[in-house]
Amino acid sequence: MIKQPAINVPKSLFAIFLDWVTLLLFLAVIIYLVVQYPSLPDQVPGHYDSSGMVDRWGSKIEMWILPLVGAGLWVLMTIVEKYPHTFNYINLRQDNLEAQYRNAKLMINVLKNESVLLFSFLIFQDIRVANGAAEGLGYFFMPVFLFVIFGSMIIFLIRMLRM
């Protein structure tokens, strides 16, 4: 196994912007959950099927799972983002090393933020469904989510191959 050099590649302004926007939205949704929690019914959505409809109801204490998982995901992916020299690359060369590391760091950052924004949406929508303001996630939730996540990965893989 070839050891890739560890070089310091600063976080881009775009990545910093995404982090702040995502953190602010995630924090706002958690505050919304804290405010709404006392008025939530005892049974809240616990799981959704592929069409976005609730297929399991659970205790309202389960509402704290998504914020915990989202925060844990944020922390872990932020740590991973700092070590692009440990990733696998297809065409890593000395002349494109820094550009490849920048691309990989940004890809992890974008996927991290998309994932945490997904958790934010799910928390918000769980509250709405529990309160009777919505019936589910909607039929287009899963295709849109998959398109965004896989579309982002494809864009960054194409960028990597072009370098």
From TrEMBL:
Name of a matching Pfam family: DUF1648
Q: What is this protein called?
A: DUF1648 domain-containing protein
Q: Which organism is it from?
A: Metaplanococcus flavidus
Q: Which residues form the DUF1648 domain?
A: 24-70
Q: What keywords would UniProt list here?
A: Membrane, Transmembrane, Transmembrane helix
Membrane-spanning parts: 12-35, 63-83, 104-124, 136-158
Question: Which InterPro entries does the record cross-reference, listed alphabetically?
Answer: DUF1648
